[in-house]
Amino acid sequence: MRLDYILRRIGLFVFMVLMLSVFTFLLSFLFPGDALSNLSGVPSNNFAQHTQLEDKYLYNSNYFMQYIAFLGRILQGDWGLSFASGDSVFSQILDLIPATLELSIYALFVSVVIGVPTGILASAYYKQWPDKLISSTTMIGYSMPIFWLALLLIMLFSLQLGWFPMSGRMSLLYEIPPTTGFILIDISLASFPYQGMAFIDALHHLTLPTIVLAMYPTTVLIRFTRESMLKVMDQNFIKTARAKGLNRRQLIMHHALRNALLPVIKQIGLQFSTLITLAMITEIIFSWPGIGRWLIDSIYQRDYPAIQGGLMAVSLFIIFATIIAELIYTLFDPLSRNQAHGKV
Amino acid sequence: MHKLLLALLSTSLIGCIDSKEEILKEKNQGLVYCAEANPVSFNPQVTTTGSTIDIIANQLYDRLISIDPVTAEFQSELATDWKTSKDGKSVTFTLRKGVKFHTTAYFTPSRDFNADDVIFTFSRLFDVYNPYHFIGDANYPYFQSVGIDQLIRKIVRVSDYQVRFELFNAESSFLANMATDFAVVLSQEYAMQLKASEQTNLFDHYPVGTGPYIYKEYRRDHLVRFYKNPAYWKHDVVLEQLVYDITPNGTTRIAKMLTKECDVTAHPSSAQLSILAQRDDINVEKETNLNIGYWAFNTERPPFDDIRVRQALAHAIDVDKIMQAVYYGNGIRAQSILPPTSWAFEPQANIPNFDPALAKKLLIEAGLPNGFNMNIWAMPVSRIYNPNARKMAELMQSDLRKIGVKVSIIEYEWNTFIQRVGEHRHDSVLLGWAADTPDPDNFFSPLLSCTATFSGKNAANWCNPQFDSLLNQALSTTDIAMRKQYYDAAQSMIINELPLIPIAHGMRFQASSADVEGITLGPFGAISLANARKK
Predict the structure, then answer these.
(1) What pLDDT is recorded for position A192?
(2) Which Pfam families match (chain B) (predicted)?
(3) Are B349 and B391 in a shared domain?
(4) Is B409 left (phi over 0), alpha (psi -120 to 50) or beta?
């Protein structure tokens, strides 16, 4: 039963990826300019080069064969060259994605650590002042556009008070070899005289982007946890437990929490895909050297191979994250395995 | 288990915090310069992009001679002495001894700088047998546009420390061109090493020079990192490290200056200077600079091949409005292609004034009564000669709409922009030029000569043999009065033909943190950080 479920999810994943690759493949024909250049990233000027490319990309066969060749190259990691830099798109993406992931993971961590307990707190004091305060604050956080929040924070904490830097992952004077791509881990792995200061500097750089990026998922998690808790607290077994004379603390810790957190776990997984999208906006504002900023730059520079590669990488990642989140959720909630079809 | 983890975490964090002395020492470790664009190459021979030259030329390399920014006299650098023969056709340089090339991760020199390096460097420009001549499309935009590659007959090795340049004809600007930021000396030994390992394509990307800093790494759109050259021949270099933070957005550069993420900022726009001037911890320097911002037409492409259309467009734009809105009073309205501080400057009486009615009339004469559609390429970065090309283009767009010309504004990333303008893909472009030497030829040959058309520098795509002959005549004499006459004729020819419209001469600005000193801004040439230090 469980295997069957996993296979269905994998099937769904493969199908989505295929659809995505068809779309990406079509993009090179929809973009202005020569489709062959858009696919390969080589502005083919001379005849010999052009013929060579035509052979490699099966350009003179039908669209289906071209697509198969395209799929083959994608699987081999040959995603073409960037118009702007002439470097391999795939290796650029591999370089950049850790920075985006890092930011998203920290933001998710912050939002779970703050969001879930705050949500529980709000539900525990339902309709009393803590609940009202939390709910109204959440409402503000939920409706505030994150680029605006980012600019406000930069104005206040970077430009006025000078507490935090406004761009990059760390001061450029520290030379950190990119081993894993995760800056805090890389600093810990590197050995150089100012390691401690570099670490603190990196934390400083992380603070504002993480706060900005965590804002939306935190408010979502607060609201979600609160709703979920309230729903559980309304159920009969809680009423029974209360009738038996348990106090609020005991009710929440021993009975309600376990049941209420199940949908929250699913929500955390789903938030990850939203995060990647929001991370792009955050990266632009804080000059964070991640894939989002790179993708927007590529659009600005009409770097078609890079746009295709970037879109594909980001979408692949979101599909992957969503499916993983759902798989993890089913580990905790066996009932959901009975769903016949997967959802993305 | 939890306690163990907590203990581990706290000890590792405490271990990370260093003492105060180290913080102080750390401050003098390096300088961050916020640059406006990626470097195109790491060899000044193959590019003329000012943003690139600013980053590489004076930091990584040295030249044979330089020009004193105050007295405009030649100074010795890698050449200790130079003599021009009586007929002016040969110049002999005596070279400095004991100058060492950089030792980097990819190259360790086995000998000091000598005549071989000079011969290798300059023969690359014209000698088809030089193994590097054809590397990178054999395009040396500056040298080709001023004709140096056509001028040198051969370079003779007199001794280990003496070289003689033999020229086809005497040219008055030869020494001035040898003193530009482009005429840097490269290592022959390094070139031969790369050739032996068949990696010649790396030569322009992994630099080896004799300058104050050594190349370490370059990450596109992110940073360029140099370390100090401990064996620099001229003086001790104070800064351990020099990092260029690549920040194309001007507002972000200013903000980074305010948050102290940059120590020095390239090209703050004049609109933002007042914000910076309010701060005690930031110094703003302002220096007159030999430059010209212009609007060039692709004269090979209709309707811009018609002189009446170019005149109509020139009369349709309100330059005074541009001076206010773009230069904020920190610029001079151009009266010629040459700036007033140049000795050959002659104000042009018939420079087109703002007259939409005349513009409309000229368009009707040219057979375009209903106007036409065109594009203006606007530089995406702010430069000395044009702090905000986008805004300038927008002002022009609204002026031109009034005579029925519909304008679309086109922008690309800076290096892509320069490359595509070089391929003449534009209708018209807002561009400019900052001088490398005080010699007036530096404004004419690189911008409007026929050879500049082929090397992609001539944005007007304009080739006029009569104009070229004027320039050649001016170069073949050393008589200043004669030269001035030829350059007068050349200036009025430009205004009559209008391959480009001179708009303004800008001021060079630089913002630096108050504890940074030793950065010199000159009236020409690129910035030098050789003496930069933190107080």
Answers:
(1) 75
(2) SBP_bac_5
(3) yes
(4) beta
Quote the Cα angle for A142-A148-A152, to 5°: 110
Measured in whole angstroms, the distance separating CA A108 from the mean position of its chain's CA atoms is: 9
How far is it, in rounded angstroms, from Cα B500 to Cα B495? 8
Domain count, chain B: 3
Residues B202 and B327 in one domain: no
B152 and B163 fall within a common domain: yes
Per the CB < 8 A criterion, the answer to whether B65 and B79 are in contact is: yes
Q: Determine the Cα angle at B523 with ends B517 and B524, to 5°.
A: 105
- Is residue B236 domain-shared with residue B218, that is, in the same domain? yes
Cβ–Cβ below 8 Å for B247 and A287:
yes
Range of the domain at B189: 41-210
Residue B23 belongs to some domain of the structure = no
B279 touches chain A (CB under 8 A): no
Listed in sequence order, the DSSP H helices in B216-272 are 250-258
The CA dihedral of B117, B119, B125, B130, to the nearest 10 degrees, is -90
List pLDDT tens digits, range B14-28: 444 455 555 545 556
Q: Which residue has the higher pLDDT, B520 or A130?
A: A130
Compute the distance between CA of residue A274 and CA of residue A163 in angstroms, rounded to an integer.
Answer: 29
pLDDT in tens, B149-164: 889 999 999 999 999 9
In a domain, residue B8? The reply is: no
- What CATH number does the domain containing B457 carry? 3.10.105.10
Which domain-ending residue is among B181, B210, B239? Answer: B210
For residue A115, what is the enclosing H or E element?
A: helix A89-124
Q: Do A173 and B256 touch (CB under 8 A)?
A: no
Q: Is A162 exposed, middle or buried (0-12, 13-18, 19+ CB in 10 A)?
A: exposed
Contact status, residue B488 vs residue B467, Cβ threshold 8 Å: no
Residues B226 and B35: beta-carbon distance below 8 Å: no
The partner residue sitting opposite B16, judged by closest CB among A166, A196, A289, is: A196
Taking residues B185-191, what's their average pLDDT?
94
| pTM passes above 0.90 | no
Do B366 and B281 lie in one domain? The reply is no
Predicted pLDDT at B25: 56
- Select from B18, B32, B217 the Cβ nearest to the Cβ of A173: B32
Please tell me whether residues B101 and B220 are part of one structural domain.
no
Mark yes or no for CB contact A171/B241 under 8 Å: no
Return the ∠ at Cα B52 (arms to B50 and B54), rounded to 5°. 70
Taking the C-alpha atoms of residue B399 and residue B315, their distance in angstroms, rounded to an integer, is: 10
Total Cβ atoms within 10 A of residue B372: 14
**Dihedral sign, Cα of residue A135, residue A138, residue A143, residue A149:** positive
In a domain, B3, yes or no: no
In a domain, B385, yes or no: yes
Alpha carbon of residue B243 to chain centroid: 19
pLDDT for B10: 46
Q: What is the pLDDT of residues B431-445, one digit of tens each?
A: 999 888 888 888 998
For residue B419, what is the nearest residue in chain A, using CA coordinates?
A84
Residue B278, domain CATH: 3.40.190.10
Q: What are phi and psi of B31, to 5 degrees?
A: -130, 135
With the C-alpha atoms ordered A102, A107, A110, A116, is the resulting torsion angle positive or negative? negative
Q: Take residue A139 and report the two structure tokens written for it.
A: 């409402």
Query: Does the beta-carbon distance from B256 to A167 stay under 8 Å?
Result: yes
Task: Decide: B97 and B79 in contact? Cβ < 8 Å.
Answer: no
Residue B158, domain CATH: 3.90.76.10
